[in-house]
Amino acid sequence: MDTIRDIMVKTVIVVDPSDSLLYVKDQMIKHGISRIVITGEDARPLGIITEKDLVKFLLTEDTDRGIDEIPVGEAMSKSLITIISDTAIPEVARIMLDRDISSLIVVDKKEKLRGIATKTDLCLYYGSKCIGIHQIHEFMTADPVMVEPSKSIFFVASIMTEHNISRVIVGDGGLMGIVTLSDVAMVGPALKPRKLVSERRYVFLKDFLMPSRNIMLLTARDVMTSNPISVHRDADLADGARLMIRHGISGLPVINSSNQIVGILTKSDAARAVASLGNGR
Predict the structure, then answer these.
(1) Across the chain, where does the E strand assignment appear?
(2) CATH architecture of the domain with range 4-129
(3) For the chain, what are the domain ranges?
C-alpha cells in the first residue's frame, strides 16, 4: 500500500509567527511554493498560510499598515489538520477534499513537523501511477469562472475569494489567458493601495516597476498568463496531471473538438481521482 511517506515533501519551508507578510510572500516566490508552515521554537507547527489566506487577509484587513508591517501570526490558519506518515495516499486525498484544504502537515508521535503533503504531490502520484484509468472529462470542473480582460485586479481577487477558487480564466468570447492566486499574491502590496499611494511607493509587476498612483488601474490583462496550455476533454487524466507538474501550474483550461472552453482541470480534480482509488493501490 502506498503511503504519504512515499510522496510527501520532507524539507519544509518554515517561518516564525513574527515574520512579516512581505517576507512570507517573498519566500513563496523564492521557493516556488504556495504555502508556508509557521513553527514555534520546539519545531511544532503553529499554523499555515497559503496564497489564498494571504489574498483574503489583505482584501479584508482595513488598516493602513503595509504588508511589511503585518506579522504572519495575524493571518495564518491556526486550525491545523495533521496526519502521520503511514496514512494511505487515497485517504490523504479524501481528507483534503472533505476539509476543503490543499495540504496536510505530517507529524511524528511527538507532534513535531516531519513533512507536508499537498495536492501537487497527489497530482504527481496520479500522473505516474494511474495512466489510462480516467479521461479528463470524468473529473474536470465544468463551467469554470471566467472574467473579461478589462476587469480590475481587485474584482478578480474578490471573485476568487467569493468562489473559493485559485484561478480564473480570462476571455472575451475565447481563451485569452488565466489569472492565478500566485499572480495576485505577487502584486500583494497592490491590495493595500492606501498605504502605497500615501508613501508614493512602486509596485514590482511582471518585470517592471509601476508607480503606486497607477495601481488602481491594474486589470486582469496586466497580470494574466497569456495563451495558457489547454487540454482536450477526452485526453488521459494522467497526461493532464503530468502537464500540470511539468509546467509548474495548477490548472488547465479544457476544450472540446470545437475549441470551446468546457471546463478546467485542477490539482483538486486530480485529488478527487486519487481519492476514488482503492486503498490497496
Answers:
(1) 14-15, 35-39, 45-50, 82-83, 103-107, 113-118, 141-142, 146-147, 167-171, 175-180, 202-205, 208-211, 225-226, 231-232, 251-255, 261-266
(2) Roll (3.10)
(3) 4-129, 136-275
Locate 11 and state its grid cell.
524539507
Specify whether the CB–CB gap between 65 and 188 falls below 8 A. Answer: no
The 10s digit of each residue's pLDDT in 65-99 is: 888 899 999 999 998 899 999 999 999 999 999 99
> 209-221: per-residue pLDDT in tens?
444 455 567 889 9
Which DSSP state fits 207?
T
User: What does the alpha-carbon distance between residue 173 and residue 20 come to, in Å, rounded to a whole number?
Assistant: 41
At residue 40's C-alpha, the angle toward residues 36 and 46, to 5°, is: 55
How far does the chain reach from its first CA to its final CA, in angstroms?
6
Domains 4-129 and 136-275 share a fold: yes
Residue 45: count other Cβ atoms within 10 Å of its Cβ.
21
Assign 115 to helix, strand or coil: strand
* Torsion, Cα of 162, 211, 149, 183 (10° steps): -50
- Nearest partner of 219 among 205, 231, 207, judged by Cα: 205
In sequence order, which residues have a C-beta less than 8 Å from that of residue 88 and are 6 or more positions away?
1, 2, 3, 4, 279
User: Was domain 136-275 assigned CATH 3.90.470.20?
Assistant: no
